[in-house]
Structures are given as structure tokens and as C-alpha cells.
Amino acid sequence: MTVLVIGAAGDLGGRVARGLRARGEDVRGLSRRPAADCVLGDLGDPASLDRACAGVQRMFLVSSPTRDQVALETNAIDAAERAGVEHIVKVSNIPIAGLETGLHGNHRAIERRLDASPVASTILQPSFFATVIERQRAQIARGQVVLPTGPGKIAWIDPDDIAAVAVEALTRADVRDAQHLTGPDALDGDEVAARLGVKRVDPPLAQWRDATVAGGLDPWLADSTVHLYEAVARGALAEVTDTVARVTGHPATAVFGPNAPL
Questions:
Q1: The pTM is what?
Q2: DSSP 3-state assignment of 125?
């Protein structure tokens, strides 16, 4: 079996590719730039996707949160259909009632496209990646972490657990339904800060949005994140699931503890 791992040169795709290779699977990585064990290809270039999909039975699909994400991932699904790929595992996010635009709208549209496809699919819907906190490494070193989520709790998940579930879904026939993926407990911003041993900063969302846009974040993504943080403050991502343990056979990883990267 050959598995095409889209984004294999990235963080999550790389974890999936390594996990598959450890199982002895034939992995074909796809990267926009030259990278070890990868073929060159771009989600915006259907011809490159056709070349990458030739002879492939399974596809792992993940892409960056951009305005054109729906069109880009649809290109990959189209190529999978043309190539006769049997199964696609897509990384999405946990649906939240009332969020139908921005990044959440993108994922819901791509999920609908997969629902209409003759290719079998598994949708992985993880909570917040714990590694997003690494973007604040410099601030954490100065003793603070910015979490503008009010009193809301998040069931943060280690990307290794997402990758482990993806590997199972790509190699087993019994992992097909949408999978809500979370860590073992839900933490509010104060609890995250306490685990990191720093002070938590919870700025007004409008202030946070303006600061991140001034720092270079796409306004579309900043607005999408503001709406998400508003939902988090209302408890939208506080649910804890047992999916990681049920699918992989090992418990979900505790995050931000003494053995965590930060």
C-alpha cells in the first residue's frame, strides 16, 4: 500500500509520515519545496497532484489555514478521485455551532465535498494543538503567556496523538467515522499558565486582534480566530473525548506538564 502524505515536510504531516514508515508502509511525501523523502507538488497545481497520486491507495490531507483552503484541498480530492485513491484522511477541526465562516467554514465546506465523493474518508476533528503555544516561546521565557479566551476551557491535544490516530485511520479499515480528538483534560488559560510556570495575560479580543494583524497575521485568519476564542469563552471546546485511547490503545498525552516541550 502506498500512502500520499500531503504536507509531509510540515510538522503534523512529518509526524504522520514517520509513523507510517515505522509501520513499514510505503510513504510518498508531498512538499512544495525540496525536502527529504518528498516529491515536489502543490495543492494549487492539479498536474503535480495527478503525478503524486499515481499508484496511491491512501491520502493524508492537511493544509495551512488560508482563504483559499477550500479550493486547494478540493484540488487534492479531485486528484484522488481521478487516480482511484481508496481512502482519504483529512485533518479538520471540531465543529462549533454558529461558526460557519472563516476557518471553520472552510473545513465544513471541505467535509461536505468529501461526503459527496466516491472516495471513502475519515475526518479527524482535533481540538487546539498544544504546539501553538510554542509560538509564544519568547514571551514564555519572559514569564507570560497570552491566552485571550476568558474563562473558557480547551481540551488541548498533543499533535503526536493526532498523528497516531491518523496512522491508524490510514492503515485500518475500521476507522472511518469522524473522530473528535482531544487531550485528557480541559484547561482554562490560568491552568495552562500555571502548568507553564508563568503569568497568564487575557487581553480584550479587539486589542489582541489589532496586535496580531499589526504583527503580520492575515486579517481573515485573525477575525476567524477571534470568533473561535469567543466560542471557547462560552465553553465550546471544553469537551474531553476518549478517541485517542479508543483508536490507538494508549491514553491521550497530558500537555504543558514537566515533560512537555515548553
A1: 0.96
A2: strand
